[in-house]
Design brief:
By secondary structure, the chain is an alpha+beta fold. It contains three helices and three strands; from the N terminus they run E-H-H-E-H-E. It has a three-stranded antiparallel β-sheet with strand order 2-1-3.
């Protein structure tokens, strides 16, 4: 009697990319544009031109996207930026939104 062993191993993986989150900077009347540009360059690693463009968007529309990251990185960027901003005496506010 012949026995056939048929085993099937499922080798397909259903990996999902982690969700991405936007760090959104809000406009205010007290934080200087130069400070926002410095933050965008120093914390969010934008070029001078990118930082100026984002800063103008924040000024003209009320908010702008500083960057898109996984959740932990987005939260860390908000935390760092808020601490630096408060230490400098500015009320710059940011929020994290799911992309």
């Amino acid at each position: 009697m012949s026995t056939e062993l048929a085993s099937k191993i499922d080798t397909t993986f259903n990996f999902k990319q982690p969700k991405k989150y936007k760090v959104v900077m809000m406009n205010d009347d007290l934080t200087p544009m130069e400070f926002v540009i410095e933050i965008l360059i120093g914390i969010f690693y934008k070029t001078e031109a990118e930082a100026q463009q984002i800063t103008l968007a924040i000024h003209n529309t009320g908010s702008g996207i500083a960057g898109v990251f996984n959740y932990e990185v987005a939260e860390q960027k908000v935390y760092e930026t808020t601490n630096i901003s408060r230490s400098a005496g500015f009320p710059l506010s940011l929020k994290v939104e799911e992309e």
